[in-house]
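Prompt: I keep going back and forth on a fold encoding question. Comparing notes only helps if you start from a blank page. Show me how you would write down a chain together with its backbone fold. Please set it down just below, with no commentary around it:
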Amino acid sequence: MAINPNDAGAVPDESFQKMQALASEKKFSFPYLLDPDHVVTKQFGATRTPHVFVLNKTDKGNVVEYIGAIDNDPEEANSTKVEYVKNAVNELSIGKKPAIASTKAVGCGIKWKKG
């Protein structure tokens, strides 16, 4: 799932209606949710958009197995692209821990609700 942490009052392009349009345009195959009071955002400690958290469902509950960037090429200029999230998911799907469990999240800062 994707969770939008930005305050639509600060960034009108982050409104729920705009999110729905983007999800439809991009044909998202996963839920795209809004976190208007930053509850989940704060629980996970997200600071950027995007800031990715790959969870693994275990008998003891969900465990965060990877935190950080989607890949090492946010500007699509790197000839040696490393797909951190894809690799983490693939490794988890075969019962392995991700070789890279944490990277620096790259992107814009979260637009926090004032007050």
Notes: The chain is about 25% helix and 20% strand. The chain has two domains: 1-37, 47-107. The chain has a mean pLDDT of 93. Residues 1-37 form one domain.
